[in-house]
Amino acid sequence: MVHSVPSRRWPTRHVRRTSVAAAVFALGALAPSLLAQPSRASSATSAPRAPNGFSAERLARVDRFLQQSVDSNRIGGAVALVMRDGQVAYQKSVGWIDRESHRSMTADAMFRIASQSKAITSTAILTLVEEGKIALGDPVSRFIPAYAHTIVASRTDSGRTVGPARRQITIQDLLTHTAGISYGGERWVADQYAAKGLGPAAGNGWYTADKTEPVCETMERLASLPFVAQPGEAFVYGYNTDILGCVVERASGVPLDEFIRTRITGPLGMTDTYFFVPPAKASRLVTLYMNDSTGHIARAPEGSRGQGHYVEGPRRSFSGGAGIVSTARDYARFLQMILNHGEIDGVRILSPRSVDLMTSNQIGTIYGQNGRGFGLGFETVERIGGNGYYSVGSFGWGGAYGSSYMVDPAERMVVVFMINQMPNRSDVAAKFPTLVYQALTDVAPRAGWPTKAASR
User: What mean pLDDT comes out for the span 11-27?
Assistant: First the structure.
């Protein structure tokens, strides 16, 4: 097992509790404009500071960047949230929940998080592993018998060949996306997937909110289709976590939405995280926009390739891989639990060792992204520069609607950026983490470098 940052180097839950730090945080929360201006008592070379090691002057750059992204019509709106040491270090809402009706973005706006759902479903699986109801090495066929004999389609000069899988797919294969299962978009299998109501022909492939059948029925049908790589031999992104959602149902005996609500989101106080939005909260669901060929936004159409059915849908299919709606605050709280090695505010969801497994590279060089790896549900950073400014040992992912997140254990930091834009041709989400790190001036010392105290 490759493990870039051993658990003993992860921070404990140190929330700064001194009265001075609390007063500074309160000032930052209540009067950010004051923090943005140099103090009269400061020297010409000193800069104002916000809580948790961020420069208030440099955080103002983030404000300007986000507002300019809205003003230039590149994004419809966004909510950004940065936590450090368990406290809010930066939070900003810009743009619109719905531009056409002039409803401004709010901190509690609800976003379609698509593949950010995968981390939550992977957590559900590991809770069952910890109870002995599932083992990482279990064949998926133990829970879904249709997966006992699967087939694999390979490209050849003459088109394709189809043959049996050389071994059964395991739970760990699904968690690491090494089962060979795609979203059915490859041209040599696309027609077969379409004929079974799967793949891109079925609303972007991963979308199931409009489906009337339970997810296990869909995943059983998937087992009859050819996959695109042998189990364990390649990283192939696809329906893996949706299959895991069915495994959760079979192993626990309850629907996936109920399991996640009672075992994860409920205990964590994630009160705005659902597969389908309650009608009373529908006004908080952000309108989906899309970039046109010029990079400007337009309102996305209705239907499975646009706004979706997250309010008025049949509420039958719970996509563990892409179906959840959440807020920046809720998702940051989930990530803070992971950063705290599985516990927050006295509520333990996972053991520290399960978190270590989730957040360390489990597939060696198979992932194929230089400087990155993949754990049991998260992409991992294996070297400095492997993913922008993030530290070695950081982990995260994103969603098809444009949202993204990262956890940096070395900096004790959670970064969440929520937008709803598809197709998304803007670079705002990609640039946002860099803007965060340029404002972080109190950083963890790099090995071999002097500390601040030693350099004075």
Answer: 39
